[in-house]
Write a structure and sequence with these properties.
about 65% helix
Length: about 300
């Protein structure tokens, strides 16, 4: 399949699978490819994700499309690295779009089950955490330029006031227990504060996602937690702190909400299985609740209080 056919697939199929917002669909369909005609690294990223999408849709030619995707992704990253130190107003939009596609590619890649979970003897966090934080870092450095440009509509600039509904009694109780667990995790104030921030922000993200307004992007909300947690908490994850792993298991419930997207489907179960493997059995009762939520088809019914 030629590059034009891959581009055609992206603009007629793949572009509609990256978000739940119609405005974003139009931007991925038209504005992003238009930007890619001026920046080869973005075009290669588009072709890589389109090839992975085709691999997902056609098992009979899966290996062919995976190899094609890997080739285009290699070329995208090679070209990207050559210019990434020269980001300015003229290319920041392409940087932003490719950074977002890199996250999609990372989740959808056939090696995602290894690279995005914890690996044995590694002191690094799962690959998706620095990827998402990296996209946010790029955004923050050039936010005014991107907001004023052709891709500004892809940005989630704050959130609407949340629906007055709150966490259900069961979910609220779970978070209270999680907070108490983390409060006893260390005698160091900065460590306790990092845990507290991570748990409080996760609670906020639960409410935002399960009471989101129609104009709010569920992908943006689900990926909000990784960018607001303190670096100290990432350090605890790197060291496989049981309490940090347990908090991460609770975040998996939000990630599971995205399993309807082809590039994310089934990955959450793999991650929580890895967390389970990392934890000593004595900690396993602490992750039973998120595991039960992931196994439910409509977990929001157990997380948010019903409307009156």
């Amino acid at each position: 399949m030629g590059d034009l056919e891959l581009l055609h697939h992206f603009t007629t199929e793949t572009c509609f699978t990256l978000s739940d917002q119609a405005q974003s669909h139009r931007l991925w369909q038209v504005a992003v490819p238009r930007e890619a005609f001026r920046h080869d690294f973005l075009m290669r990223g588009i072709l890589a994700v389109a090839a992975l999408h085709l691999a997902h849709l056609g098992p009979d030619k899966q290996e062919h499309f995976r190899q094609l995707a890997a080739q285009h992704q290699h070329l995208a990253l090679t070209s990207f690295r050559l210019v990434m130190s020269k980001m300015d107003e003229s290319n920041c939009h392409a940087f932003f779009a490719l950074s977002s596609l890199i996250v999609v590619f990372a989740f959808a890649s056939p090696r995602a089950s290894e690279s995005l979970a914890f690996t044995e003897n590694s002191q690094e966090p799962p690959e998706w955490l620095p990827l998402i934080r990296g996209v946010h870092s790029i955004l923050m450095s050039v936010w005014p330029w991107i907001k004023a440009g052709s891709l500004g509509g892809l940005l989630q600039e704050g959130f609407e006031q949340p629906n007055p509904r709150e966490l259900s009694a069961a979910a609220d109780s779970q978070f209270n227990q999680l907070s108490r667990l983390c409060e006893s995790a260390s005698s160091e104030p900065d460590v306790i504060e990092a845990y507290k921030t991570a748990v409080d922000e996760l609670r906020n993200c639960y409410v935002k996602l399960y009471t989101k307004m129609p104009s709010e992007c569920e992908v943006s909300i689900a990926f909000l937690w990784p960018v607001v947690i303190p670096q100290k908490f990432i350090t605890m994850l790197n060291s496989r702190s049981p309490q940090a792993l347990i908090v991460l298991a609770h975040y998996c419930v939000l990630l599971h909400h995205l399993d309807g997207y082809w590039w994310k489907r089934g990955w959450t179960g793999h991650l929580i299985a890895n967390i389970c493997r990392e934890l000593d059995e004595s900690w396993h009762p602490w992750i039973q609740w998120p595991m039960s939520m992931i196994q439910m088809e409509h977990c929001s019914e157990r997380i948010i209080t019903p409307t009156q």
